[in-house]
Amino acid sequence: MMKKLVTVKIILSIFCTLLLTNTTFAQYSPTPKFKGKIGKTIEETQERYAPVHPVAPENAPNVVWILIDDIGYGATAAFGGLIETPTFDRLANNGLRYTNWHTTAFCAPTRAALLTGRNPHSVHFGYFASESYGTPGYDGYLPFEKATIAEVLRENGYSTFAVGKYHVTSPSDVTAAGPFNRWPTGRGFDHYYGYKPSVGGAPQWNAVLYRDTQLAPKDPEGRHVTELFANEAIRYIDELKKVDPEKPFFLYFAPGATHTPHQVAVEWVDKYKGKFDKGWDWYRETVLARQKQLGVVPQNVELPPQNPDVRPWDSLLDDEKTVAARLMENYAGFVSHTDYEIGRVIDYLEQTGELENTLIVLMIGDNGTMGASPRDKLVNYTETLPEVLAKQLKNLDSLGTAKSFPNYPGGWAAATNTPFRYYKENPSWEGGTHNAMVLYFPKKFQGNGEVRSQYSYVTDIMPTTLELVNAKVPKIIHGYRQEPIEGISLAYSIDHPEAPERHTIQYHETTGSYALYKDGWKVAFPNGMKSPNGAIREPDSNGVYLYNMREDFNEIRNLADKYPKKVKELKKAFEKEAWKYNVYPLKNKWETTNPYTIKYYKDNMPRF
What we know:
608 residues, alpha/beta, eleven-stranded mixed beta sheet, four-stranded antiparallel beta sheet, 17 strands, disordered N terminus, hydrolase activity, metal-binding, Alkaline_phosphatase_core_sf, signal
Protein backbone atom coordinates (compact mmCIF):
# COMPACT_ATOMS: atom_id res chain seq x y z
CA MET A 1 0.00 0.00 0.00
CA MET A 2 2.83 2.37 0.93
CA LYS A 3 4.54 1.73 -2.42
CA LYS A 4 1.31 2.52 -4.24
CA LEU A 5 0.94 5.82 -2.32
CA VAL A 6 4.54 6.76 -3.14
CA THR A 7 3.94 5.92 -6.79
CA VAL A 8 0.77 8.02 -6.85
CA LYS A 9 2.60 10.95 -5.21
CA ILE A 10 5.40 10.74 -7.78
CA ILE A 11 2.91 10.67 -10.65
CA LEU A 12 1.01 13.63 -9.19
CA SER A 13 4.28 15.50 -8.69
CA ILE A 14 5.31 14.91 -12.31
CA PHE A 15 1.84 15.88 -13.52
CA CYS A 16 1.88 19.13 -11.53
CA THR A 17 5.36 19.95 -12.80
CA LEU A 18 4.28 19.37 -16.40
CA LEU A 19 1.12 21.38 -15.85
CA LEU A 20 3.04 24.33 -14.48
CA THR A 21 5.64 24.08 -17.24
CA ASN A 22 3.02 24.04 -19.95
CA THR A 23 1.01 26.98 -18.63
CA THR A 24 3.79 29.36 -17.69
CA PHE A 25 4.88 32.06 -20.06
CA ALA A 26 7.29 34.02 -17.86
CA GLN A 27 10.80 34.70 -19.08
CA TYR A 28 13.01 31.65 -18.56
CA SER A 29 14.84 32.54 -15.38
CA PRO A 30 15.81 29.59 -13.15
CA THR A 31 17.47 30.37 -9.84
CA PRO A 32 21.17 30.77 -10.60
CA LYS A 33 23.87 29.01 -8.64
CA PHE A 34 25.18 31.19 -5.79
CA LYS A 35 28.84 32.06 -6.43
CA GLY A 36 29.62 33.97 -3.28
CA LYS A 37 30.56 32.64 0.15
CA ILE A 38 28.29 32.27 3.17
CA GLY A 39 29.74 32.47 6.69
CA LYS A 40 28.22 32.56 10.16
CA THR A 41 28.70 36.33 10.29
CA ILE A 42 28.61 39.19 7.85
CA GLU A 43 32.37 39.54 8.20
CA GLU A 44 32.84 35.95 7.06
CA THR A 45 30.35 36.27 4.15
CA GLN A 46 31.08 37.30 0.61
CA GLU A 47 27.85 38.35 -1.09
CA ARG A 48 27.28 37.97 -4.83
CA TYR A 49 24.27 39.05 -6.87
CA ALA A 50 23.51 36.96 -9.91
CA PRO A 51 22.05 38.75 -12.94
CA VAL A 52 18.25 38.58 -12.78
CA HIS A 53 17.46 39.75 -16.30
CA PRO A 54 19.33 39.41 -19.59
CA VAL A 55 21.25 42.51 -20.57
CA ALA A 56 21.89 43.35 -24.20
CA PRO A 57 25.44 44.20 -25.31
CA GLU A 58 26.39 47.87 -25.39
CA ASN A 59 24.97 49.68 -28.44
CA ALA A 60 22.86 46.66 -29.43
CA PRO A 61 20.75 47.60 -32.47
CA ASN A 62 17.01 48.14 -32.35
CA VAL A 63 14.85 46.03 -34.66
CA VAL A 64 11.68 47.05 -36.48
CA TRP A 65 9.68 44.61 -38.57
CA ILE A 66 6.97 46.11 -40.79
CA LEU A 67 4.49 43.72 -42.39
CA ILE A 68 1.87 44.99 -44.86
CA ASP A 69 -1.27 42.92 -45.42
CA ASP A 70 -2.69 41.76 -48.78
CA ILE A 71 -0.64 43.76 -51.28
CA GLY A 72 0.92 42.88 -54.61
CA TYR A 73 4.46 43.15 -55.91
CA GLY A 74 3.46 45.86 -58.41
CA ALA A 75 1.44 48.13 -56.10
CA THR A 76 3.95 50.50 -54.49
CA ALA A 77 6.30 52.95 -56.14
CA ALA A 78 9.22 51.33 -54.29
CA PHE A 79 8.85 48.32 -56.63
CA GLY A 80 7.61 50.08 -59.74
CA GLY A 81 3.93 50.54 -58.87
CA LEU A 82 1.86 53.67 -59.36
CA ILE A 83 0.83 54.17 -55.73
CA GLU A 84 2.88 56.84 -53.96
CA THR A 85 4.81 55.47 -50.97
CA PRO A 86 7.55 57.96 -50.02
CA THR A 87 8.40 56.15 -46.77
CA PHE A 88 8.81 52.82 -48.53
CA ASP A 89 10.82 54.60 -51.22
CA ARG A 90 13.10 56.10 -48.58
CA LEU A 91 13.80 52.72 -46.99
CA ALA A 92 14.23 50.98 -50.34
CA ASN A 93 16.44 53.67 -51.87
CA ASN A 94 18.76 53.62 -48.86
CA GLY A 95 18.58 49.90 -48.24
CA LEU A 96 18.49 46.71 -50.26
CA ARG A 97 15.57 45.53 -52.39
CA TYR A 98 15.01 41.77 -52.24
CA THR A 99 13.20 40.85 -55.45
CA ASN A 100 12.92 37.09 -55.01
CA TRP A 101 11.35 36.94 -51.56
CA HIS A 102 8.39 34.67 -50.88
CA THR A 103 5.60 34.23 -48.38
CA THR A 104 2.85 31.68 -47.98
CA ALA A 105 -0.41 32.25 -49.86
CA PHE A 106 -2.37 33.19 -46.71
CA CYS A 107 -1.83 35.65 -43.89
CA ALA A 108 -1.89 33.44 -40.77
CA PRO A 109 0.59 30.84 -42.10
CA THR A 110 2.91 33.65 -43.22
CA ARG A 111 2.80 35.28 -39.79
CA ALA A 112 3.41 32.01 -37.97
CA ALA A 113 6.41 31.29 -40.21
CA LEU A 114 7.72 34.85 -39.91
CA LEU A 115 7.54 35.02 -36.13
CA THR A 116 9.16 31.62 -35.57
CA GLY A 117 11.58 31.24 -38.48
CA ARG A 118 10.04 27.83 -39.15
CA ASN A 119 7.88 26.52 -41.98
CA PRO A 120 4.15 27.13 -41.47
CA HIS A 121 3.12 23.48 -41.18
CA SER A 122 6.10 22.88 -38.90
CA VAL A 123 4.55 25.33 -36.42
CA HIS A 124 1.03 23.92 -36.92
CA PHE A 125 -0.25 26.68 -39.21
CA GLY A 126 -0.88 25.05 -42.56
CA TYR A 127 -4.09 27.07 -42.59
CA PHE A 128 -5.92 29.16 -39.96
CA ALA A 129 -6.35 28.50 -36.26
CA SER A 130 -10.01 29.40 -36.73
CA GLU A 131 -10.39 26.54 -39.19
CA SER A 132 -8.05 24.00 -37.70
CA TYR A 133 -7.66 20.27 -38.20
CA GLY A 134 -6.44 17.79 -35.61
CA THR A 135 -3.01 16.97 -37.02
CA PRO A 136 0.36 18.58 -36.18
CA GLY A 137 0.46 20.66 -39.37
CA TYR A 138 -2.95 22.21 -38.97
CA ASP A 139 -4.12 22.44 -35.36
CA GLY A 140 -3.32 26.15 -35.06
CA TYR A 141 -1.27 26.07 -31.84
CA LEU A 142 2.25 27.51 -32.10
CA PRO A 143 4.64 25.12 -30.30
CA PHE A 144 6.63 26.55 -27.40
CA GLU A 145 9.58 24.45 -28.56
CA LYS A 146 9.77 26.82 -31.55
CA ALA A 147 10.16 30.25 -30.00
CA THR A 148 9.10 33.49 -31.62
CA ILE A 149 11.52 36.26 -32.51
CA ALA A 150 10.11 38.24 -29.57
CA GLU A 151 10.89 35.43 -27.13
CA VAL A 152 14.43 35.11 -28.46
CA LEU A 153 15.16 38.85 -28.44
CA ARG A 154 13.72 39.27 -24.97
CA GLU A 155 16.16 36.61 -23.78
CA ASN A 156 18.86 38.78 -25.40
CA GLY A 157 17.91 41.82 -23.33
CA TYR A 158 15.39 43.50 -25.64
CA SER A 159 12.09 45.17 -24.87
CA THR A 160 9.49 43.82 -27.27
CA PHE A 161 6.33 45.44 -28.66
CA ALA A 162 3.70 44.40 -31.18
CA VAL A 163 1.00 46.57 -32.71
CA GLY A 164 -1.67 45.74 -35.26
CA LYS A 165 -2.63 42.32 -36.51
CA TYR A 166 -1.35 39.15 -34.84
CA HIS A 167 -3.65 36.40 -36.17
CA VAL A 168 -1.87 33.36 -34.73
CA THR A 169 -3.87 32.82 -31.53
CA SER A 170 -6.60 30.19 -31.52
CA PRO A 171 -10.11 31.67 -31.20
CA SER A 172 -10.79 29.18 -28.40
CA ASP A 173 -8.12 30.96 -26.30
CA VAL A 174 -9.32 34.48 -27.03
CA THR A 175 -11.76 35.02 -24.20
CA ALA A 176 -11.53 36.59 -20.76
CA ALA A 177 -10.99 33.08 -19.41
CA GLY A 178 -7.78 32.58 -21.38
CA PRO A 179 -5.44 30.80 -21.31
CA PHE A 180 -3.23 33.74 -22.29
CA ASN A 181 0.04 31.95 -22.96
CA ARG A 182 -0.49 32.02 -26.74
CA TRP A 183 -1.57 35.64 -26.87
CA PRO A 184 1.21 38.00 -28.07
CA THR A 185 2.20 38.77 -24.48
CA GLY A 186 2.47 35.05 -23.85
CA ARG A 187 4.82 34.56 -26.80
CA GLY A 188 7.48 37.11 -25.96
CA PHE A 189 5.94 40.55 -26.44
CA ASP A 190 6.09 42.82 -23.40
CA HIS A 191 3.16 44.79 -24.79
CA TYR A 192 0.54 44.34 -27.49
CA TYR A 193 -1.95 46.79 -28.95
CA GLY A 194 -4.07 45.58 -31.82
CA TYR A 195 -6.98 43.56 -33.07
CA LYS A 196 -8.27 40.54 -31.24
CA PRO A 197 -5.24 38.25 -31.77
CA SER A 198 -7.27 35.57 -33.55
CA VAL A 199 -8.69 38.02 -36.11
CA GLY A 200 -7.53 38.17 -39.74
CA GLY A 201 -9.50 41.15 -41.06
CA ALA A 202 -11.25 44.02 -39.32
CA PRO A 203 -12.62 47.51 -39.97
CA GLN A 204 -10.22 50.44 -40.10
CA TRP A 205 -12.68 52.76 -38.38
CA ASN A 206 -14.04 52.06 -34.88
CA ALA A 207 -12.11 48.81 -34.64
CA VAL A 208 -12.35 46.58 -31.58
CA LEU A 209 -8.83 46.65 -30.10
CA TYR A 210 -6.98 44.98 -27.25
CA ARG A 211 -4.16 46.23 -25.06
CA ASP A 212 -2.09 43.28 -23.85
CA THR A 213 -4.90 40.84 -22.90
CA GLN A 214 -7.61 43.38 -22.08
CA LEU A 215 -10.23 45.00 -24.26
CA ALA A 216 -9.07 48.56 -24.94
CA PRO A 217 -11.43 51.55 -24.63
CA LYS A 218 -12.80 52.97 -27.86
CA ASP A 219 -10.81 55.89 -29.21
CA PRO A 220 -12.88 58.97 -28.26
CA GLU A 221 -11.67 60.84 -31.35
CA GLY A 222 -12.63 58.03 -33.74
CA ARG A 223 -9.24 58.02 -35.44
CA HIS A 224 -8.17 55.59 -38.18
CA VAL A 225 -6.78 52.41 -36.68
CA THR A 226 -3.41 52.68 -38.48
CA GLU A 227 -2.93 56.09 -36.88
CA LEU A 228 -3.64 54.53 -33.49
CA PHE A 229 -1.09 51.80 -34.15
CA ALA A 230 1.57 54.37 -35.07
CA ASN A 231 0.76 56.41 -31.97
CA GLU A 232 1.08 53.36 -29.76
CA ALA A 233 4.36 52.25 -31.34
CA ILE A 234 5.85 55.69 -30.70
CA ARG A 235 4.53 55.72 -27.13
CA TYR A 236 6.05 52.32 -26.34
CA ILE A 237 9.48 53.36 -27.59
CA ASP A 238 9.28 56.77 -25.92
CA GLU A 239 8.42 55.29 -22.51
CA LEU A 240 11.21 52.71 -22.80
CA LYS A 241 13.88 55.27 -23.70
CA LYS A 242 12.85 57.59 -20.87
CA VAL A 243 13.37 54.80 -18.36
CA ASP A 244 16.30 52.95 -19.95
CA PRO A 245 17.88 54.83 -22.89
CA GLU A 246 20.44 52.09 -23.54
CA LYS A 247 18.01 49.20 -23.80
CA PRO A 248 17.28 48.06 -27.38
CA PHE A 249 13.77 47.31 -28.56
CA PHE A 250 12.01 45.09 -31.07
CA LEU A 251 8.90 46.54 -32.70
CA TYR A 252 6.60 44.35 -34.80
CA PHE A 253 4.43 46.81 -36.75
CA ALA A 254 1.74 44.85 -38.59
CA PRO A 255 -1.26 47.01 -39.48
CA GLY A 256 -4.49 45.60 -40.86
CA ALA A 257 -3.80 47.61 -44.01
CA THR A 258 -4.24 46.84 -46.79
CA HIS A 259 -6.64 43.97 -46.08
CA THR A 260 -10.29 44.55 -46.85
CA PRO A 261 -12.20 46.66 -46.02
CA HIS A 262 -10.28 49.37 -47.87
CA GLN A 263 -11.22 52.24 -45.57
CA VAL A 264 -9.45 55.60 -45.37
CA ALA A 265 -10.29 59.30 -45.13
CA VAL A 266 -11.57 60.87 -48.36
CA GLU A 267 -8.66 63.32 -48.65
CA TRP A 268 -6.36 60.36 -49.25
CA VAL A 269 -8.70 58.95 -51.89
CA ASP A 270 -9.03 62.28 -53.68
CA LYS A 271 -5.24 62.45 -54.13
CA TYR A 272 -5.71 59.86 -56.89
CA LYS A 273 -8.72 61.33 -58.71
CA GLY A 274 -8.50 60.46 -62.38
CA LYS A 275 -5.14 58.71 -62.07
CA PHE A 276 -6.46 55.25 -62.91
CA ASP A 277 -8.98 56.16 -65.58
CA LYS A 278 -6.88 54.43 -68.26
CA GLY A 279 -7.62 51.10 -66.62
CA TRP A 280 -5.90 47.98 -65.41
CA ASP A 281 -4.47 46.89 -68.78
CA TRP A 282 -2.65 50.22 -69.06
CA TYR A 283 -1.53 49.91 -65.43
CA ARG A 284 0.13 46.53 -66.07
CA GLU A 285 2.05 47.80 -69.10
CA THR A 286 3.15 50.99 -67.36
CA VAL A 287 4.26 49.25 -64.18
CA LEU A 288 6.24 46.55 -65.98
CA ALA A 289 8.24 49.26 -67.78
CA ARG A 290 8.90 51.01 -64.45
CA GLN A 291 9.94 47.73 -62.83
CA LYS A 292 12.49 47.10 -65.56
CA GLN A 293 13.83 50.61 -65.14
CA LEU A 294 14.22 50.04 -61.38
CA GLY A 295 15.79 46.63 -61.96
CA VAL A 296 13.29 44.80 -59.75
CA VAL A 297 12.38 42.40 -62.56
CA PRO A 298 14.70 40.94 -65.23
CA GLN A 299 14.85 42.85 -68.49
CA ASN A 300 13.46 39.92 -70.49
CA VAL A 301 10.21 39.67 -68.52
CA GLU A 302 6.99 39.86 -70.51
CA LEU A 303 3.46 40.44 -69.29
CA PRO A 304 1.76 37.09 -68.66
CA PRO A 305 -1.67 36.31 -70.08
CA GLN A 306 -4.40 38.12 -68.18
CA ASN A 307 -6.12 36.13 -65.45
CA PRO A 308 -9.24 34.41 -66.80
CA ASP A 309 -11.54 36.21 -64.33
CA VAL A 310 -10.54 39.67 -65.61
CA ARG A 311 -12.28 41.40 -68.50
CA PRO A 312 -10.38 43.76 -70.80
CA TRP A 313 -10.76 47.33 -69.57
CA ASP A 314 -12.07 48.53 -72.92
CA SER A 315 -14.95 46.04 -72.74
CA LEU A 316 -16.37 47.61 -69.56
CA LEU A 317 -19.38 49.91 -69.67
CA ASP A 318 -18.74 53.55 -68.81
CA ASP A 319 -20.47 53.15 -65.44
CA GLU A 320 -18.35 50.10 -64.70
CA LYS A 321 -15.21 52.07 -65.46
CA THR A 322 -16.34 54.89 -63.19
CA VAL A 323 -16.93 52.54 -60.28
CA ALA A 324 -13.80 50.48 -60.89
CA ALA A 325 -11.54 53.54 -61.16
CA ARG A 326 -12.91 55.01 -57.92
CA LEU A 327 -12.41 51.70 -56.10
CA MET A 328 -8.77 51.75 -57.17
CA GLU A 329 -8.41 55.40 -56.10
CA ASN A 330 -9.78 54.36 -52.74
CA TYR A 331 -7.30 51.48 -52.46
CA ALA A 332 -4.37 53.67 -53.51
CA GLY A 333 -5.30 56.24 -50.87
CA PHE A 334 -5.40 53.45 -48.30
CA VAL A 335 -1.90 52.33 -49.24
CA SER A 336 -0.50 55.88 -49.19
CA HIS A 337 -2.06 56.57 -45.81
CA THR A 338 -0.46 53.39 -44.45
CA ASP A 339 2.91 54.55 -45.79
CA TYR A 340 2.39 57.94 -44.12
CA GLU A 341 1.65 56.47 -40.69
CA ILE A 342 4.67 54.19 -40.91
CA GLY A 343 6.64 57.28 -41.90
CA ARG A 344 5.67 58.91 -38.62
CA VAL A 345 7.32 56.05 -36.74
CA ILE A 346 10.45 56.27 -38.92
CA ASP A 347 10.60 60.05 -38.46
CA TYR A 348 10.31 59.62 -34.70
CA LEU A 349 13.24 57.21 -34.69
CA GLU A 350 15.29 59.72 -36.68
CA GLN A 351 14.37 62.64 -34.41
CA THR A 352 15.38 60.68 -31.31
CA GLY A 353 18.69 59.53 -32.80
CA GLU A 354 17.66 55.86 -32.92
CA LEU A 355 17.29 55.35 -36.67
CA GLU A 356 20.98 54.95 -37.48
CA ASN A 357 21.24 51.95 -35.17
CA THR A 358 17.96 50.32 -36.15
CA LEU A 359 17.54 47.33 -38.44
CA ILE A 360 14.30 47.73 -40.38
CA VAL A 361 12.78 44.86 -42.34
CA LEU A 362 10.01 46.13 -44.61
CA MET A 363 7.82 43.31 -45.93
CA ILE A 364 5.39 44.60 -48.55
CA GLY A 365 2.92 41.77 -48.42
CA ASP A 366 2.10 38.71 -46.34
CA ASN A 367 0.76 37.18 -49.57
CA GLY A 368 -0.31 38.41 -52.99
CA THR A 369 -3.28 40.64 -53.70
CA MET A 370 -6.78 39.53 -52.86
CA GLY A 371 -8.81 38.82 -56.00
CA ALA A 372 -12.52 39.63 -56.18
CA SER A 373 -15.25 37.23 -57.17
CA PRO A 374 -15.33 36.34 -60.88
CA ARG A 375 -19.13 36.05 -60.88
CA ASP A 376 -19.74 39.68 -61.74
CA LYS A 377 -16.12 40.36 -62.81
CA LEU A 378 -16.21 43.75 -61.10
CA VAL A 379 -16.84 43.80 -57.37
CA ASN A 380 -17.22 41.24 -54.63
CA TYR A 381 -20.96 41.45 -53.94
CA THR A 382 -23.90 39.07 -54.20
CA GLU A 383 -26.28 41.31 -56.16
CA THR A 384 -26.60 41.29 -59.93
CA LEU A 385 -24.21 43.53 -61.85
CA PRO A 386 -26.81 46.26 -62.57
CA GLU A 387 -27.77 46.32 -58.88
CA VAL A 388 -24.13 46.58 -57.85
CA LEU A 389 -23.46 49.38 -60.31
CA ALA A 390 -26.50 51.36 -59.23
CA LYS A 391 -25.58 51.02 -55.57
CA GLN A 392 -21.93 51.87 -56.14
CA LEU A 393 -22.62 54.88 -58.35
CA LYS A 394 -24.99 56.24 -55.74
CA ASN A 395 -22.51 55.75 -52.92
CA LEU A 396 -19.15 56.55 -54.54
CA ASP A 397 -18.59 59.42 -52.11
CA SER A 398 -19.01 57.02 -49.17
CA LEU A 399 -16.17 54.73 -50.23
CA GLY A 400 -13.57 54.44 -47.51
CA THR A 401 -15.92 55.50 -44.72
CA ALA A 402 -17.14 53.33 -41.89
CA LYS A 403 -20.38 52.88 -43.84
CA SER A 404 -18.56 51.09 -46.65
CA PHE A 405 -16.78 47.74 -46.89
CA PRO A 406 -14.95 48.10 -50.20
CA ASN A 407 -12.67 45.79 -52.09
CA TYR A 408 -11.34 46.49 -55.56
CA PRO A 409 -12.20 44.48 -58.68
CA GLY A 410 -10.12 41.50 -59.73
CA GLY A 411 -8.67 43.53 -62.59
CA TRP A 412 -6.94 45.86 -60.14
CA ALA A 413 -5.82 42.93 -58.00
CA ALA A 414 -4.20 41.41 -61.07
CA ALA A 415 -2.66 44.74 -62.08
CA THR A 416 -1.12 45.48 -58.69
CA ASN A 417 0.37 41.99 -58.76
CA THR A 418 2.35 42.80 -61.92
CA PRO A 419 4.26 40.94 -63.31
CA PHE A 420 2.74 37.81 -61.74
CA ARG A 421 -0.43 35.84 -62.35
CA TYR A 422 -3.22 35.11 -59.90
CA TYR A 423 -3.69 36.11 -56.31
CA LYS A 424 -3.62 35.44 -52.61
CA GLU A 425 -4.68 31.84 -51.86
CA ASN A 426 -2.51 30.62 -54.75
CA PRO A 427 0.40 28.54 -53.40
CA SER A 428 1.16 27.24 -56.89
CA TRP A 429 1.74 30.59 -58.59
CA GLU A 430 4.05 33.50 -57.87
CA GLY A 431 1.07 35.85 -57.70
CA GLY A 432 0.10 34.24 -54.42
CA THR A 433 3.52 34.02 -52.80
CA HIS A 434 6.02 36.44 -54.40
CA ASN A 435 6.29 39.70 -52.44
CA ALA A 436 8.60 42.67 -52.11
CA MET A 437 11.03 43.02 -49.19
CA VAL A 438 13.56 45.64 -48.08
CA LEU A 439 16.45 45.48 -45.61
CA TYR A 440 17.51 48.83 -44.14
CA PHE A 441 20.29 49.19 -41.57
CA PRO A 442 22.31 52.45 -41.83
CA LYS A 443 24.87 51.48 -39.21
CA LYS A 444 25.81 48.26 -41.00
CA PHE A 445 25.31 49.01 -44.71
CA GLN A 446 24.25 51.69 -47.17
CA GLY A 447 22.30 49.77 -49.76
CA ASN A 448 21.55 52.66 -52.14
CA GLY A 449 18.53 50.77 -53.47
CA GLU A 450 20.53 47.88 -54.87
CA VAL A 451 18.80 44.64 -55.77
CA ARG A 452 19.39 41.20 -54.31
CA SER A 453 17.85 38.42 -56.38
CA GLN A 454 18.71 35.29 -54.41
CA TYR A 455 15.69 33.12 -53.61
CA SER A 456 14.42 33.77 -50.10
CA TYR A 457 11.41 32.91 -47.97
CA VAL A 458 9.55 34.37 -45.02
CA THR A 459 11.32 32.00 -42.61
CA ASP A 460 14.63 33.69 -43.50
CA ILE A 461 13.73 36.97 -41.80
CA MET A 462 14.22 35.71 -38.25
CA PRO A 463 17.71 34.19 -38.73
CA THR A 464 18.74 37.23 -40.80
CA THR A 465 17.69 39.52 -37.97
CA LEU A 466 19.45 37.46 -35.30
CA GLU A 467 22.70 37.39 -37.27
CA LEU A 468 22.67 41.11 -38.05
CA VAL A 469 22.09 42.12 -34.42
CA ASN A 470 24.34 39.36 -33.07
CA ALA A 471 21.62 37.76 -30.93
CA LYS A 472 21.76 34.16 -29.78
CA VAL A 473 18.98 31.59 -29.50
CA PRO A 474 19.01 30.09 -26.00
CA LYS A 475 18.81 26.32 -25.79
CA ILE A 476 15.89 26.64 -23.39
CA ILE A 477 13.15 29.30 -23.42
CA HIS A 478 10.22 29.28 -20.98
CA GLY A 479 11.52 25.90 -19.84
CA TYR A 480 11.14 24.42 -23.34
CA ARG A 481 14.15 23.00 -25.15
CA GLN A 482 14.30 24.73 -28.52
CA GLU A 483 14.17 23.03 -31.89
CA PRO A 484 16.26 24.36 -34.82
CA ILE A 485 15.26 27.41 -36.85
CA GLU A 486 14.41 26.31 -40.39
CA GLY A 487 15.01 29.56 -42.27
CA ILE A 488 18.38 30.65 -43.65
CA SER A 489 20.01 34.00 -42.90
CA LEU A 490 20.28 36.41 -45.82
CA ALA A 491 23.20 38.25 -44.27
CA TYR A 492 25.54 36.49 -46.72
CA SER A 493 23.93 38.40 -49.61
CA ILE A 494 24.27 41.92 -48.21
CA ASP A 495 27.84 42.54 -49.32
CA HIS A 496 27.82 39.94 -52.09
CA PRO A 497 25.09 40.56 -54.67
CA GLU A 498 26.28 37.69 -56.87
CA ALA A 499 26.62 35.13 -54.06
CA PRO A 500 24.95 31.78 -54.79
CA GLU A 501 21.61 31.48 -53.04
CA ARG A 502 21.56 29.39 -49.89
CA HIS A 503 17.83 28.81 -49.62
CA THR A 504 17.77 26.23 -52.38
CA ILE A 505 14.58 24.30 -51.64
CA GLN A 506 11.15 25.43 -50.44
CA TYR A 507 7.72 23.85 -50.53
CA HIS A 508 4.39 25.69 -50.75
CA GLU A 509 0.97 24.26 -49.89
CA THR A 510 -2.49 25.66 -49.26
CA THR A 511 -5.88 23.91 -49.42
CA GLY A 512 -4.51 20.94 -51.33
CA SER A 513 -2.65 22.89 -54.03
CA TYR A 514 1.11 22.70 -53.76
CA ALA A 515 4.43 23.56 -55.35
CA LEU A 516 8.14 23.13 -54.78
CA TYR A 517 11.08 25.38 -55.61
CA LYS A 518 14.46 23.66 -55.90
CA ASP A 519 17.71 24.98 -57.37
CA GLY A 520 16.06 27.38 -59.79
CA TRP A 521 13.25 25.06 -60.85
CA LYS A 522 9.65 25.09 -59.70
CA VAL A 523 7.00 22.42 -60.06
CA ALA A 524 3.35 23.22 -59.31
CA PHE A 525 0.29 21.04 -58.83
CA PRO A 526 -2.67 23.45 -58.67
CA ASN A 527 -5.27 20.65 -58.51
CA GLY A 528 -7.90 22.98 -59.95
CA MET A 529 -8.64 24.50 -56.55
CA LYS A 530 -11.01 27.44 -56.19
CA SER A 531 -11.02 29.92 -53.34
CA PRO A 532 -13.81 29.77 -50.73
CA ASN A 533 -15.61 32.75 -52.31
CA GLY A 534 -15.46 31.19 -55.76
CA ALA A 535 -12.65 33.30 -57.21
CA ILE A 536 -10.47 31.55 -59.77
CA ARG A 537 -7.12 30.97 -58.15
CA GLU A 538 -5.49 29.04 -60.97
CA PRO A 539 -6.40 27.30 -64.22
CA ASP A 540 -9.25 24.85 -63.81
CA SER A 541 -6.97 21.95 -64.53
CA ASN A 542 -5.40 19.04 -62.79
CA GLY A 543 -2.30 19.60 -64.86
CA VAL A 544 1.32 19.85 -63.82
CA TYR A 545 3.40 22.99 -64.29
CA LEU A 546 7.18 23.19 -64.47
CA TYR A 547 9.16 26.40 -64.75
CA ASN A 548 12.80 27.35 -64.96
CA MET A 549 12.56 30.32 -62.60
CA ARG A 550 16.01 31.65 -63.45
CA GLU A 551 14.94 32.14 -67.05
CA ASP A 552 11.19 32.59 -66.58
CA PHE A 553 10.70 35.00 -63.66
CA ASN A 554 6.90 35.09 -63.86
CA GLU A 555 5.99 31.59 -65.05
CA ILE A 556 4.94 31.99 -68.68
CA ARG A 557 6.50 28.89 -70.26
CA ASN A 558 5.35 25.55 -68.87
CA LEU A 559 8.11 22.96 -69.42
CA ALA A 560 6.39 19.97 -67.80
CA ASP A 561 5.90 18.04 -71.03
CA LYS A 562 9.48 18.76 -72.12
CA TYR A 563 11.14 17.61 -68.88
CA PRO A 564 9.06 14.82 -67.30
CA LYS A 565 12.09 13.50 -65.39
CA LYS A 566 12.52 16.88 -63.71
CA VAL A 567 8.84 16.87 -62.74
CA LYS A 568 9.24 13.43 -61.21
CA GLU A 569 12.39 14.49 -59.36
CA LEU A 570 10.77 17.60 -57.90
CA LYS A 571 7.56 15.83 -56.95
CA LYS A 572 9.60 13.28 -55.03
CA ALA A 573 11.47 16.14 -53.32
CA PHE A 574 8.15 17.75 -52.38
CA GLU A 575 6.93 14.52 -50.80
CA LYS A 576 10.08 14.36 -48.71
CA GLU A 577 9.60 17.94 -47.53
CA ALA A 578 5.90 17.34 -46.91
CA TRP A 579 6.55 14.40 -44.57
CA LYS A 580 9.33 16.31 -42.85
CA TYR A 581 7.26 19.44 -42.11
CA ASN A 582 3.77 18.03 -41.34
CA VAL A 583 2.21 19.04 -44.67
CA TYR A 584 0.21 15.83 -45.00
CA PRO A 585 -2.69 15.19 -45.16
CA LEU A 586 -3.53 17.46 -48.09
CA LYS A 587 -6.94 18.95 -47.45
CA ASN A 588 -9.07 20.93 -49.90
CA LYS A 589 -12.15 21.56 -47.76
CA TRP A 590 -11.81 23.58 -44.61
CA GLU A 591 -14.42 23.40 -41.90
CA THR A 592 -12.96 23.24 -38.42
CA THR A 593 -13.25 20.03 -36.44
CA ASN A 594 -11.73 21.54 -33.28
CA PRO A 595 -14.44 21.18 -30.60
CA TYR A 596 -13.06 24.12 -28.60
CA THR A 597 -13.16 26.43 -31.62
CA ILE A 598 -16.64 25.23 -32.55
CA LYS A 599 -17.82 25.96 -29.01
CA TYR A 600 -16.18 29.39 -29.11
CA TYR A 601 -17.99 30.36 -32.32
CA LYS A 602 -21.27 28.92 -31.05
CA ASP A 603 -21.00 30.95 -27.84
CA ASN A 604 -19.72 34.17 -29.36
CA MET A 605 -21.01 34.62 -32.90
CA PRO A 606 -24.42 36.06 -31.88
CA ARG A 607 -22.63 38.95 -30.20
CA PHE A 608 -20.99 40.23 -33.37
